[in-house]
Amino acid sequence: MNHKAAIPNAFTLTNLLLGILSIVYTMDQNYRMSAIMILLAAILDGMDGKVARKLDVASPFGKELDSLSDLVSFGVAPAILIYAAQLNEPYGIIGLTVAILFALCGAIRLARFNILNITTHFLGIPITVAGPLMALFSLAGDHLPDLFFPVAMLLLAGLMVSNLKVPKF
Amino acid sequence: MNHKAAIPNAFTLTNLLLGILSIVYTMDQNYRMSAIMILLAAILDGMDGKVARKLDVASPFGKELDSLSDLVSFGVAPAILIYAAQLNEPYGIIGLTVAILFALCGAIRLARFNILNITTHFLGIPITVAGPLMALFSLAGDHLPDLFFPVAMLLLAGLMVSNLKVPKF
């Protein structure tokens, strides 16, 4: 790996770092900071691919690392956050099931898209959209009804594994 | 995807499910169950590839899904468990840094191995060995000195990204 190639990968690893910090903040019941970590990860995730292409150092290694980081920051971290902050009370085990389903559908979405190699559009809503959306909803949590969270999470989970064509920007 | 191909993927998704449950148990401070989830995930992870090859349904999709699940169950879940159970007290932010470094090295290990396509041996200790080892250490936590955990975790992190040739069994 040359030095220039390390730059986008450093962005991607920071994305993963922020995803893990989000989980740590959720453990400390600091749900606001947990959501902010996910949103910061989303900003970095939007930059690594652009930087890699601009520097002409896009690589299969970078792509793999990106998928791995995306699952943690936009699948697992939001699932843990929304479960702890919004679903555990009042939904208990059903809330946990919904949260885990969201992360599993995110993993399926990532694995499927990686092997399809479609470049013109996305198939199903990207996990990089669904995860940050759930983090935004969590920040607005007090103003939303209880039922909003399981419904939104199931809907986004379904849309990630759907065959919906989503335009690339 | 045919019906037979769904069998190993169900094993892989259960591996991911157990990784997420491990994080949830750590949040509940049930560190014993958290470690057991990681060890159960390791058993399932040993089975999915074998089942896929036996049924002759090994696929790029299955391989991608396997890597994604491995990072959560054997990188992130052990990092969160060891940080909460062994490193937060007495090491604080330094303990958190060690735990996150372990997960980041695990991600690099997975991304690197996936693009190398070596089939005769492993390069660096697999994350599927390092993660379950940390879970085993955690179960024996009370009998080990405090300093054991950051040292073992840094050592395994380094070995994952090393060029050590590890034979396949």
From TrEMBL, chains A, B:
For this protein, what is the EC number? 2.7.8.8
Extract the Gene3D superfamilies matched here. Answer: 1.20.120.1760
Q: Which UniProt keywords apply?
A: Lipid biosynthesis, Lipid metabolism, Membrane, Phospholipid biosynthesis, Phospholipid metabolism, Transferase, Transmembrane, Transmembrane helix
Name its cellular compartments: Endomembrane system
Q: How does it sit in the membrane?
A: Multi-pass membrane protein
Tell me the InterPro entries matching this sequence: CDP-alcohol_PTase-I, CDP-diaglyc--ser_O-PTrfase, CDP-OH_P_trans, CDP-OH_PTrfase_TM_dom, CDP_ALCOHOL_P_TRANSF_CS
- BP terms from Gene Ontology: phospholipid biosynthetic process
Q: Which reaction does it catalyse?
A: a CDP-1,2-diacyl-sn-glycerol + L-serine = a 1,2-diacyl-sn-glycero-3-phospho-L-serine + CMP + H(+)
Q: Which GO terms describe its cellular component?
A: endomembrane system; membrane
Which EC class, in a word?
transferase
Q: What is its main location?
A: membrane
Which GO MF term does the entry hold, naming one? CDP-diacylglycerol-serine O-phosphatidyltransferase activity
Segments crossing the lipid bilayer: 7-25, 91-110, 122-141, 147-166
Tell me where on the tree of life, at the top rank, the source sits: Bacteria
Protein family according to the UniProt entry:
Belongs to the CDP-alcohol phosphatidyltransferase class-I family.
Protein's recorded name: CDP-diacylglycerol--serine O-phosphatidyltransferase
**Gene name per UniProt:** pssA
